[in-house]
Amino acid sequence: MIQNPKRYTITAALPYTNGPIHIGHLAGVYVPSDIYSRYLRLQGKDVAFICGSDEHGVAISMKAKKEGITPQEVIDKYDGIIRKSFEDFGISFDNYSRTSAKIHHDTASEFFRKLYDNGNFIEETTEQLYDAKADQFLADRFVMGTCPKCGNEEAYGDQCERCGSTLNATDLINPKSTITGETPVLKSTKHWFLPLDRYEDFLREWILVGHKNDWKPNVYGQVKSWIDGGLEPRAVTRDLDWGIDVPVEGAEGKKLYVWFDAPIGYISSTKEWALREGKDWEPYWKSDDTKLVHFIGKDNIVFHCVIFPAMLKAEGSYILPDNVPANEFLNLEGNKLSTSKNWAVWLHEYLEDFPEKQDVLRYALTSNAPETKDNDFTWKDFQARNNNELVAIFGNFINRVAVLVNKNYDGFIPTPNEFSEIDEAALTELKAYPAVIASSLERYRFREALGELMNVARLGNKYLADEEPWKVIKENPERVKTQLYVASQIAAALSILAEPFLPFTASKLSRILKNEGKLKWDDVANNSDLIPSGHQIGPNELLFAKIEDEEIQKQIDKLEATKTANKAENKKAEPQKDLIQYEDFAKMDLRVGTILEAEKMPKANKLLVLKVDTGIDVRTIVSGIAESFSPEEIVGRKVTVLVNLAPRALRGVESQGMILMTTNAEGKLVFVNPDAEAGNGETIN
Description:
Layout: E1 7-12, H1 23-42, E2 47-53, H2 58-67, H3 71-89, E3 95-98, H4 102-117, E4 122-131, E5 136-137, E6 143-146, E7 155-156, E8 173-177, E9 185-194, H5 200-209, H6 217-228, E10 234-235, E11 237-239, E12 254-256, H7 258-277, H8 283-286, E13 290-295, H9 301-315, E14 330-332, E15 335-336, H10 347-353, H11 358-367, E16 375-377, H12 379-409, H13 421-442, H14 446-467, H15 469-475, H16 477-497, H17 503-513, H18 523-526, H19 549-570, H20 582-586, E17 590-600, E18 608-613, E19 618-623, H21 631-634, E20 638-642, E21 648-650, E22 653-655, E23 658-659, E24 661-663, E25 669-671, E26 683-684
Parallel strand pairs: 1-2, 1-13, 2-3, 14-16
Antiparallel strand pairs: 4-5, 4-9, 6-7, 6-8, 9-10, 11-12, 14-15, 17-18, 17-20, 17-26, 18-19, 20-23, 21-22, 24-25
Helix pairs in contact: 2-3, 4-7, 5-6, 6-9, 11-12, 12-14, 12-16, 13-14, 13-16, 14-16, 15-16, 16-17
């Protein structure tokens, strides 16, 4: 670990521009990286917080094919949505770039060319999967098949999303092209490979020995498993029509593989930032006194901890990451997040549905962060964390302080009298919190750090509850001056300590206290007068509002609608039954009828007794539909009736026919309805 770095380069995984940002991305990468960057800035550190859109690779081509537009139209559309979502949500990137930018194309090409000129690549002609019908080689994401390790039948050619295994497309069992559905064939093609096996000893020493005690167990364990399994050469080029051209002769029609080009995007984005700010970019990537930290999700661990470091090592002039604090996955309401199935809470939609509640989502995602294991986001938990914690603890304390100071002292912070032991204890405890929170943040334990922040608010609430200034004011107004001075110091501390976690709240609180920009992180521990006597605060504003059940139910209903749509889309028809002759069908007498009466069968939960006008008579039919329909809602409904079915006694009632039904995607019974113009007794043939 680097001690006392001169500067920090913080990178957040480049989001693919094939869809918007969802809560899984936020919980895994963008909220923790933003917390860390904001914290460092409050300490006066030199920080470059870097990100950008990942606009190459197969995911973009797949989206373009699906939507019937060009890859350029795809990246422009989603870069705009993503960029605005991050801005509105308050992610404080110092630079957000695009890998389609010229500065990135130039940087990636130069990086490749240097490794090529230094002999760091292996050139090989290999057998790759080829879709003859589409007349193209298949990139890994254009191939699906059975994972050889866990049996998942929907594994991609680069990774199995069920077991997390990194794969090659040729590893798949029964591979199929996602373009045409055809079984691909093997065809020869020339590519360049990064020989990872050459760097195995370096990686083993650097990570497995050097970072054994400071990298997160989930990250260390995955890297160890990969290295212990033996490293093999990895292709850095692909036969694609979208991406950065391979800058060597004989590579016409080939592009840099996205996993090679994308991490270089951190470097090109830093260059772009430095040019704009008039800085030198190189110290942020090439000086030993720089701390480089990659924030990623667990599906990117291998790329950032094995492949990218091997690339940097091969190039020779770059520093290596000090840490890669990857999070696990966040699930949604008990199911895995899925962009393709629309099973997600999209950030841009959240911001529309919950205006000015950015910090509520930041709080919910951080307090439930999947730091060491997969966690589950539920809307009920989101509501509870807002109402029971942000409103009832943090907001309640600030509200009490602001109301009491404005009511009793016209908004001026009172001059304290002699401090009691309780006052001294509260102020002493308050001064300890910056170091406690910082310790958690320095170890990338953001959930733990947020818990300590809330303990500051709990300290304030307990102090007021024990001291009861609203009662003491009647007998000892001089004592209340001290009490509210102490409470105001805790409120001022919260305005700075909350900023990394809840930046919009911290800004609002600073506005109430009228202390914008006056405090730094270390002031809480070192300054006994965070908000001085005689300072006038502003009128009270509620920091948080309760979220009602109706708002939450709306979100749950939206997800249920998605679930229903997915079931309908994925529902497979029953296979065809054995062939019959026309004469077999002609034996059935199917008629249009109308339900005249309906009532529940006594002591039978599933049965309704129906009176049906079949056009030839009015007959009794017993139907097992009582769990799906009430008698009232089906009276008058047109139905299809099998009238020549042999009668059958059901619980003593003779049933003289059968109503035709089917089931929808949810498994719910629905009537097979005749056209409204068909009259009773009309035959169906």
